[in-house]
Each structure stands twice: as C-alpha cells, then as structure tokens.
Amino acid sequence: MHVVAQLAVSLDGVASGFDVDLARFYALASLWQEEVTLIGADTILAQESDVLAAPRRGPRPEGPLLAVVDSRARVHSWTSLRDLGYWSDVLALYADQTPARPPDSTTRELVTGYDQVDLAEVLDVLDRRGVHTVRVDSSGALLRACLELELIDELALLVHPVLVGSGERWYDTRRLNLHHVGTEVFKDGVLWMRYCVAI
C-alpha cells in the first residue's frame, strides 16, 4: 500500500494564514487516484456547516472511500458527507472507548485501538482489503501522528511564495528522511515538491 500526504505551506513552513488555490490543490491531489481518503474529525467539523448546506448529489460510485478518524464520535453529518458527490461511501474510524453511537446508525465502522484510533491497524486492515493508495487529507494532528508512526510513504508540498510570520509550523522536517523525487514550478511562483519518506 502507498500512503501519500499533500499539504499547502508557506515559505516559512506554516500551513494556514494564506490563500490557497483549492482547485489546483485538489487537481494535483487527484493524480494519485486514491481509493481511500483519510481525514480527521477536526477537519470535518471545521467544514460541517458548509457540508450540511451543500447540494446532495449522492455517492460517486467510482470515487474513493472517505475514512474519518473520530475517536470521540463528534461527527454526525455522515449522510451529508456520503451524498456530497465526492466519495463512494464513508467509514467511521472509532476506538474501543469511543462513545456509543445511535443504535440505528447505518454508517460503516471500523473499531481499532483502545482510547484512540490505531492508525497503523487501520492501514493494515485497508491493505488486507486490497486498498493500494491512501491519501491523508490533513495538515494538522492526523498528519503529524502518521509521520510520527512512520506511516507516510510520500509527501507533496505545495509551497506558496508568502511569509506568514506567525503560526505553528506543520512539522519539523529535520526528523524525516526525505528523498526528493521532483519539483514543478507554476507561473505564480508556487512550487509543487514531492518527496519519498524513507524509514
């Protein structure tokens, strides 16, 4: 299985506080044609009002599966997420100690870990189910956890020619063994830099 993460960052290594061309970001991300999009509950909750207000086009059969790490069962917009028209279905990733869900819930679940979702086990289960490519859609806690656990195979940085000047850096890359595999330069000065992450 190949696990890839792409994120937009500033020149000073911050992943927020500047404008990102989301159309380009997701056009580039689509090149991996992932079978599973792995995302954290915080990201979903930050966009929940937009998700609930968006048109419901129904599941996209050829789309990837959306897998959401939700150890505390905070996400409730599963049907809306499924019907956005981006994903084929949704999968709630829970831990043993995740609060009880409604008994009539129709959302697919995978339970791993005790008080937090065991990300390594999640990927192992997906691998055994025949998944070849997982894209981690995060620039925060989920991505950092995946990097700490050495679960990321490829990292793509969309580097923007801006200095944010404040904010938390997304990760200390000195802790990673990165091998450069390519760079593309866009007319507006944005760089798309891809690296293999060696263990």
How much beta, percentage-wise?
25-35%
Low-confidence stretches: none
Judging by the overall fold, what is the CATH architecture of the largest domain?
3-Layer(aba) Sandwich
Q: Describe the strand arrangement of the main beta sheet, using strand numbers.
A: 5-4-3-2-6-1-7-9-8
The counted number of beta strands is: 9
CATH topology of the largest domain: Dihydrofolate Reductase, subunit A
- Based on helices, strands and strand pairing, what is the structural class? alpha/beta
Mean pLDDT across every amino acid position: 91
Give the full name of the CATH homologous superfamily of the largest domain.
Dihydrofolate Reductase, subunit A
| First-last Cα distance | 15 Å
Number of domains: 2
Sequence of secondary-structure elements? EHEHHEHEEHEHEEE
CATH C-level class of the largest domain? Alpha Beta
Give the SSE map.
Blueprint lengths: L1 E9 L11 H8 L6 E5 H6 L1 H6 L11 E5 L8 H5 L6 E6 L13 E4 L7 H10 L4 E4 L4 H8 L5 E7 L16 E9 L5 E8 L1
Parallel strand pairs: 1-6, 1-7, 2-3, 2-6, 3-4, 4-5
Antiparallel strand pairs: 7-9, 8-9
Protein name: Pyrimidine reductase
Pfam families: RibD_C
Organism: Kribbella jiaozuonensis
Compact overview of the structure:
This protein is an alpha/beta fold and 199 residues long.
